[in-house]
Amino acid sequence: MAGTMVPAILAENLGKTYTRRKRKSGFWPGLRAYFSTESERFAAVTDLSFRVERGESVGLIGENGAGKSTTVKMLTGILVPSEGRIETLGVVPWRERRRLAQNMGVVFGQKPQILWDIPARESFRLLKVMYAIPDDVFRFTYDEAVERLELAEFIDTPVRLLSLGQRMRCDLAASLLHAPAVAFLDEPTIGLDVLVKERVREHLIEMRRRFGTTIVLTTHDLKDISATCERLLVLDRGRLLYDGSRQGFEERFAHGRTLLVDLGSEADAATRGALERDLADDDVTFTWDTPHRLRVECARSASAPKVTASVLEHLHVADLAVQGAELDAIVTRLYRTAKAPA
Amino acid sequence: MTTLAAPTLRQVIGGFCVLAQKTAQTKLTYRLATLITLLASGFAYCVFLLVWNEVYRQNPHAGPLSREQMLGYLVIAFLVNALLILNVESRFLQRVRMGLVAVDLVRPLGFVFVQLAQATGDLLVNAIYAVPIYVVGLAFAGSALYPASWLAAVLGGVSVALAFLIGFGVSYLIVQASFVLQSGYGVLFARAALHQVFSGLSAPLVMFPAPLRRVAVWLPFRHEIETPVRLWLGQATLAEAPRLLLEQAAWGMGLVLTGELVFRAVMHRHQIQGG
Questions:
Q1: Which of B216, B212, B122, B105 is nearest to B164 (CA)?
Q2: What Rg do the C-alpha atoms of chain B give, in angstroms?
Q3: Assigned superfamily of A255-324
Q4: pTM of the shown model
Q5: What is the number of structural domains in chain B?
Q6: Nearest-CA distance from B230 to chain A in Å?
Q7: Mean pLDDT for each consecutive 10-residue tract of chain B (275 residues)?
Q8: Residue A245 is inside which H or E element, if any?
Q9: Residue A102 at interface with chain B, using a CB cutoff of 8 Å
Q10: Can you tell me the distance from the alpha carbon of A252 to that of A246, in angstroms, rounded to the nearest whole number?
């Protein structure tokens, strides 16, 4: 095992640039492109620096194409960075891939990890030998996975006959069987129903508690992050937008609460104007999603009871909901802000 | 830097054996498909044998080999070829196209050992199918299929093992090509054509026109089929045997090492398809 002072992950000014051929749509442009060597450079990750200590659980989030998967692939040694310095468990991942693999677990949510044509139990046996997992460790991780992820029902069925959710559970179990020092989980709950997602989160928490596994979790389901991670790394177009505690993130980016108002009848311009004048001194923003749906974003300084009372007074309200400062809402707002034209 | 625990040799060997076994198990899942392939190619080869049989019937001195020698050669060549049909490329090309190669790269066995273990799994299953081919072949060529001597049998066996290494080495290079090209089907078909012509599968190279024979000498393909067959049947002299085996070993090691060097270079520029 590595020395205690070595961080689980160290990335300094990390960058990855891809070269891709220029392709055009349509038959003739496509044919011309076939004989052309024209290509373009595309920076998937730029100047990324962060450090993850042993035992931390970090959520890596960002919109599609933000560079999450590329970052994970560099951290696991699958991709060689174009620039910068990178260490996982104290080694340069792409240079010492085998050594790192022995101590690392990986789940790629859309790529099956275990053999397709044989039952998962057989793959688990293969992994026991391949990773030289001690009997006592294997007994614990195997039993924990079978019980927590409810694998018993289909563990002897060939993997190709399993549903996506069943296969994902097997993949997750397989990636953690050797109790790795660090686990990279790229969308491990993709395609799972809410109950199974809950099971997966419990399994991650238990593995971390028992073995001190460092977890790097990439997901679009922010409930995964809320349940399992204390720290967030938010990527936007290959750059680090935020690095810090989940709580700090919520405090920094949560603007307050959002009132979601469904109207029984459409409000005319005069009514809308009256409402906006009434709350002119409060720090609120009105967004009419549809003529029957109003979103009122209240800053922390605004008084929610006053805003609610005013809405009820001016509008014919059919339904009303208050959305708190949940991670989902904050991240959605953050993405919207990042996309908005300057 | 740190002293991160590395996979032990025992672990690598153990993992290799179990992965080979599981690959064989996987291949046996599709036994009907394998059987159909085998029957179809077996039928085509039987026709091929009948044609040569007819050629020799019309002209007993059609080539430098006698009819029995020729039929013995062709059946053993088919047997060795069936034994060494490895699914390395087809398995891998599919994985490259789907971006599944990422999974292979995070195994402690190392990429080349994962591929070699799977190829060994293919060989194990092929060996099961080779037995009936040999039995059917006896009907065509009878005692002409027997090894020339015990020593010839041992030399032939060693040569088949080295031919496996060469076959794997060529496949491993094609795998690297598919990293670069994102689809290695073009290279795969080129390899199949070169193998068909220069391995001696269709006929012993001694029957080839001189220019083709000269080209074949500089390629590894003849050592995949012709060399083991000639050693088994005693068509190569004992004096030739050490040179042939050394050439095979050099080709096998050279191809695998070249593949590994190319792999390291390719890893610097490859892209995994999909998110």
A1: B122
A2: 20
A3: ACT-like. Chain A, domain 2 (3.30.70.1150)
A4: 0.80
A5: 1
A6: 38
A7: 74 93 88 81 85 90 86 92 88 77 86 93 90 82 89 96 96 83 76 90 90 92 96 92 97 96 82 54
A8: strand A239-245
A9: yes
A10: 10
